[in-house]
Amino acid sequence: MSNWKDTFINMKPPSWSQIIVILFDEYKKNSYNFTKNHLSICHTIPKNPTK
Fold first, then answer.
1. Residue 1 DSSP class
2. What is the pLDDT of residue 11?
């Protein structure tokens, strides 16, 4: 754990295109999950509660 910085420095840095692809992939997954969760929450709450 103490030499994680050395490991990080010695690692080959990913190219910008790889970073963008990874970030975009994460964004797509997160936005999909967010939308899915949001819809499920909306469907759980009744629109016009009778009581």
1. -
2. 67
d(CA 40, CA 22): 27
Instruction: Kindly give, in sequence order, each residue whose CB lies less than 8 Å from that of residue 14, ignoring residues fewer than 6 positions away.
Output: 22
Indicate the helix (H) or strand (E) that contains 33: helix 16-44
Nearby residues of 22 by Cβ (< 8 Å), 6 or more positions away: 14
Terminal alpha carbon distance of the chain: 57
> From first to last of its 51 residues, what are the pLDDT tens digits of the chain?
567 677 666 667 667 788 888 888 888 887 777 777 777 766 666 666 565
